Amino acid sequence: MFKNVIVKRPSKSMVEGITSQPKLGKPDYELALKQHDKYIEALKACNVNVTILDADERFPDSCFVEDTAVITKNCAIISNPGAKSRNKETEDMIETIKQFFTEDKIEYITAPGTLEGGDVMMVGNHFYVGESARTNKEGCRQFIEKLEKYGYTGSVVELEQVLHLKTGLAYLENNNLLVAGEFVDKDVFKDFNRIIISEDESYSANCIWVNDTVLVPFGYEKAKKAIEEKGYRVIEADTSEYRKLDGGLSCLSLRF
Ligand code: CIR
């Protein structure tokens, strides 16, 4: 179960955030703020304490806090984002994480290693890490080495198409795994109870499990139904403005 969640308010500068889909247009900041309010409300309905950090205008993508760290029960691992414009987002996050962990339990991914938290999926005591355009081999190596210090294990999944590992995967506990796109046929996930997300709803593979509730992006009926059929309570949250920046539900928080 998660006790804490950290989120960061979107900045006005988010309209300049990184995107691979300029055709979707620029995010509407006011609408993004409202969606963020609702996201926080949904999290609070899952019995977690939500720490809300102020917006940081210096970093257009800084509302996507998930990429700055991986937080486990036993330690916090500060990432080293591969996207140049995002690399210093970790600095403020370190200060926040110090409110939850003593310094000897805080680890750091360092250059030449890069890692973004969106590439990490926790399944119990095992962590899958995506080798991607943002997370390199050395970042994966350092990450697994640090995990092992705390009794965890890790393994690498090479990404071919999507931005982050969790762009196409979401672990919903109880061996249930949402899978989309390039992950549908990957052998490494064949022993999970896979819930396959159809091509036209691929964005909805980025859901989050929070204490037996699953937050699902608004408007993806097939995914919502399939998750409900597994017995979860579902809360829909509209993330249309974050989608324009390749971001989704998991990217907007750190859960631990
Ligand atoms: C980026 O390209 O870094 C942001 N526009 C989106 C980050 C999404 N984060 C995530 O999937 N964990």
Question: Could you characterize what this model shows?
Answer:
The structure is a single chain. The protein is an alpha/beta fold and 256 residues long. It has a single domain, classed as L-arginine/glycine Amidinotransferase, Chain A. It contains 5 helices and 15 strands. A 3-stranded mixed sheet has the order 2-1-15, with helices on one face. A 3-stranded mixed sheet has the order 3-4-5, sandwiched between helices. A 3-stranded mixed sheet has the order 6-7-8, covered by helices on one side. Strand 3 and strand 4 form a beta hairpin. It is globular, with a radius of gyration of 17 Å. Bound molecules: citrulline. The site of citrulline has 19 residues, from loops. It comes from Romboutsia sedimentorum.
In brief:
The chain is of the alpha/beta class and about 260 residues long.
Q: Profile the largest sheet.
A: 3 strands, mixed
**So how many helices?**
5
Bound molecules: citrulline
Oligomer: single chain
CATH level-1 class: Alpha Beta
- Give the domain tally: 1
Q: Which blocks of ≥5 consecutive residues have pLDDT under 50? A: none
CA-based gyration radius = 17 Å
Secondary structure: helix percent: 10-25%
Instruction: Report the count of strand segments.
Output: 15
**N→C terminal distance:** 8 Å
Give the rounded overall mean pLDDT: 98
Coarse morphology: globular
Family: Belongs to the DDAH family.
InterPro entries: DDAH-like
Organism: Romboutsia sedimentorum
Keywords: Hydrolase
